[in-house]
Amino acid sequence: MTKPLTITDIKKMKQEGIPVTMVTAYDYAMSKNLNEAGIDMILVGDSVGNVALGYTSTVPVTMEEMLHHTKAVMRGNSTAFVVGDMPFMSYQASEVDGLYNAARFLKETGCSAVKLEGGSEVAPLVAKMVQAGIPVVGHIGLTPQSVNQLGGFKVQGKDVAAAKKLLEDAKALEEAGAFAIVLECVPEALATKVTEVLKSAVTIGIGAGNGCDGQVLVCNDLLGFTDGFRPKFAKKYVDLHAHMLGAFKEYISDVKARSFPAKEHTFAIEEEVLEKLY
Ligand code: KIV
């Protein structure tokens, strides 16, 4: 039986210059498909709020929702390293909340690590989680849980002060023991610099160019699930929206025309059984 990748495998990939692949998933079926494709890491992102639950941001997402979706992903997982995303206010109010909620991910879902947003301000919490045996992925740059504070979804680290702060945040997270750091919406050259400076933490970029140790995309963006807004950095590998629409329309028209179900989709019964009903 194949075992899931471990934190050691992921860290080794950085040292060997092998790009790390990560995609988000929120349910059993997507998790199974990603496993079959050979993905390294699955992130059960709080983006579930936007793409699967219909919220307008990740802010309303709760711990219970995250645990529910992470459990479903874990049931479909056999080989990937799965990371559960800590939702807004599951770690910001106190370190005790943070430790307790991070532990819930590992204990109740069986996933291998947690991700949380923030730089040096969350480093002490990260250190405590790591001391407690919880692998941590950091997340800096555009941090969607703080979208109200950031004033919108914008590229981060563009001036000297912001670029310096991003580099310092990355170093603080690495020092605290984060084994990987998501860099979201950061200029390519800055993300490359951060990647070079960090000796052990694996950088995983999203809208951060090609110089990171790995890449992450939201599965719904990658698959073209809807035809709504998609960020510039999100490459659409297939237009599933068009395929789904076509299939749903064909089904509706088949049912209306009584051409579905056909004989091959139907169960038969012996005539004499039917006769005995009257
Ligand atoms: O929630 C999420 O999907 C994320 C990725 C964008 C990294 O945090």
Structure, described:
The structure is a single chain. With 278 residues, this protein is α/β, with parallel strands linked by helices. Helix content is 42%, strand content 13%. It contains twelve helices and eight strands. It has an eight-stranded parallel β-barrel with strand order 1-2-3-4-5-6-7-8, surrounded by six helices. The longest helix is centred in the middle third of the chain and has 17 residues, at 160-176. The mean pLDDT is 96. It binds 3-methyl-2-oxobutanoic acid. 3-methyl-2-oxobutanoic acid is lined by residues 24, 43, 45-47, 85, 139, 182, 184, 206, 216, 218.
Write the layout of secondary structure elements.
Blueprint: H1 7-15, E1 20-24, H2 28-37, E2 41-44, H3 48-51, H4 63-75, E3 81-85, H5 95-109, E4 113-115, H6 123-131, E5 136-141, H7 147-150, H8 160-176, E6 180-184, H9 188-197, E7 202-206, E8 214-217, H10 219-222, H11 240-256, H12 271-275
Parallel strand pairs: 1-2, 1-8, 2-3, 3-4, 4-5, 5-6, 6-7, 7-8
Helix pairs in contact: 2-4, 4-5, 6-8, 8-9
Bound molecules: 3-methyl-2-oxobutanoic acid.
